[in-house]
Amino acid sequence: MLILGCGSANSGDDAAGWMVADRLQAMGLPARRHEGDCLSLIDAWSGHEEVILVDAMASGREPGSRVVLDATAEPLSRLRFPCAGSHSFGVGETVELARALGALPSKLLIYAIEGSSFEAGSELSAAVRKGVDRAVHEIQSGTGPLAACHLRNFPTG
Amino acid sequence: MKTRTIKVDYLARVEGEGALAVKLRGDKVVDVQLRIFEPPRLFEAFVRGRHFSELPDLVARICGICPIAYQMCAVHAIERAFAISIDPTVRLLRRLFYCGEWIGSHALHIYMLHAPDFLGYPDAIHMARDHRSLVEQGLRLKKIGNRIVSLLGGREIHPVSATAGGFYRVPSRRELEALAADLEWGLEASVKTARFASTLDFPDFEQDYEFVSLFHPLEYPLNEGVVKSSKGIHADADFYDQHFTEYQVEHSNALHSVVRGRGSYLVGPLARFALNFDRLPPAARQVARECGLSVPCNNPFQSIIVRSIELIFAFSEALRIIKAYHPPGQPRVPVPDQAGTGCAATEAPRGLLYHHYGFDEGGLVKSARIVPPTSQNQKRMEEDLRELVPRLLHLPEPEITWKCEQAVRNHDPCISCATHFLQLHLERV
Description:
Chain A has one domain: Rossmann fold, CATH 3.40.50. Chain A has four helices and five strands. Chain A has helices at residues 16-26, 41-44, 91-101, 126-141, and strands at residues 2-5, 31-33, 50-57, 66-70, 107-114. Chain B is of the alpha+beta class. In chain B, strands 1, 2, 3 and 14 form a four-stranded mixed β-sheet that branches. A three-stranded antiparallel β-sheet of chain B has the order 6-7-8, covered by helices on one side. A three-stranded antiparallel β-sheet of chain B has the order 11-12-13. The chains are: A alpha/beta, B alpha+beta. Chain A binds chain B through residues 35-37, 39-40, 42-43, 85-89, 93, 96-97, 100-102, and chain B through 12-15, 64-65, 108-109, 112-113, 123-126, 128-129, 132, 135-136, 139, 142-143, 146, 150, 155-157.
């Protein structure tokens, strides 16, 4: 099991994935920030059977709300991630490239938190701060949408 | 007479946001506009008032693909302004740092962005379904570049270790030796990359470019040398403005650049290859000849082979540096606050990058000017399209659009850097 938080500092709600990873790591869970470009996610999850990737999204939903997708079961085209990555390789494209290469984990869940502001220099919004709290709770307890995801090696064991 | 416009509303597989519009009257191209609509980011304004020690980390934010280029240009400009001499080993580490960036950037462009054009796929994801090993090789090469950048810069994206006078931390000999096996593999793989690239189909499209790059008498240029052109310029970066000028055009948020009194010019791998072929390692020259490259190479579609030759260079150079490496006595020399002005030119993966700064007596930035490679290539990219489109008019429009996009991707534009691309509009008027 591995929990990867994607994002960046100093870009408002784009920090959501990193904040979730930091807090889960502090609780002793196998979580870490992903600091490289999106394409290097393929290396980051290599060797792990079950992976939860936490990132901010910009889909027009209510700020702070979340969507959990099973990327091993369906393509990610219906979500938009704010950090598109370099030269068109963002999270969605990287997942699809990994699928084409047979390099996806056995189970890859995308836990996406809707952001409201990704302005350079801005702070995390109040709504996303609550979304981060909920993500930490749901991931560490396996509740919410994760309850139906049938992870075999869930962090809480 | 019938007129039409070919439009690409959003250029794919380039860094940043841009579009392309080609206006035709009959079979005659009457206008080509590379429209860069990514908003200006005003870096030159917001570094003003900041201390010089902050510059390398600030300008690294201009680009996620080539932050080293921006950092190196800034540190060289500061050191030139304040007459600071650096340790020779630090100089070599900077070359190694730059090699890491070239490897990551070139591997990404060759395999993930440019190869799909030649093999007939809309993107690398579709290409990966039929050419898995090719994509895997590209990813592995890119990963090695990232590893070098992480080791020297502290992290993969927007590294933080470079500073005026040297590095905040330099690697141990053992840390660099640990790269050797990957670099040996990468050297072999980059030779295979060049051989693969040479098998692709290239249109007959020779252009009369004025190539501009750094030129160094002893080495393939990365971060030192004079600015040279294939039509006679040979000048220290201090005299950049005597030879080049920038101006604004309505359709682009990035300034256009020309050689004073002449016009467009081209920076990047084709220019470096044309002006510095003799300083490539013998193995790279040999492979270039075996791949059928002429010197200079005036066909921009063949830039995919030239980038592969530069990959061979970057791996060879990285190996040479780590084999000879002994850590410097001190990672950096002190740089006191002082007034001054300084400029520098270095070779980003996409071509010549120029920075010019003025500092007050407290070391604060008074003025800043940054001329990125894509900005300099804009006018020449438009001219490539003016030449190319009339040869394509017998084709169906989707194919014309594809070829136009490919012609832009030949130069691996980085629009994010330049705004400081692609939608295609083909208009018949």
